[in-house]
Design a protein that fits this description.
Layout: E1 2-5, E2 9-14, E3 17-22, E4 28-31, H1 33-43, H2 48-60, H3 64-83, E5 87-90
Antiparallel strand pairs: 1-5, 2-3, 3-4
């Protein structure tokens, strides 16, 4: 699956992370550092698995338990963003 940011989302980088506004729901939020890394990777054209793999390499090194946890957490975050209409999935 490929991911993209919904056209209904207006966002910008700030000193505190990524601030975003969903124009259809009125939802406003600011993502923390890790959420911002995921957001920017998706904005750059990253799919769920490549984003999860990149973050696990960056933060877990070669620790298999930590890699597994990071991959699961990234997929959970992306799933939440899809459920809330912030990311959209499409076939690769």
């Amino acid at each position: 699956m490929s991911l993209r940011i919904s056209d209904a989302v207006v966002w910008q980088e700030t000193g505190e992370g990524i601030s975003l506004y969903h124009t259809e729901t009125g939802d406003f939020r600011t993502l923390n550092e890790t959420g911002s890394k995921i957001w920017l990777a998706v904005a750059g054209g990253g799919g769920a698995q490549p984003v999860a793999s990149a973050l696990s390499r960056e933060f877990a090194g070669t620790d298999p338990a930590l890699i597994k946890r990071i991959v699961a957490d990234v997929h959970a975050f992306i799933g939440t963003m899809v459920d809330q209409g912030l990311f959209e999935e499409s076939p690769a």
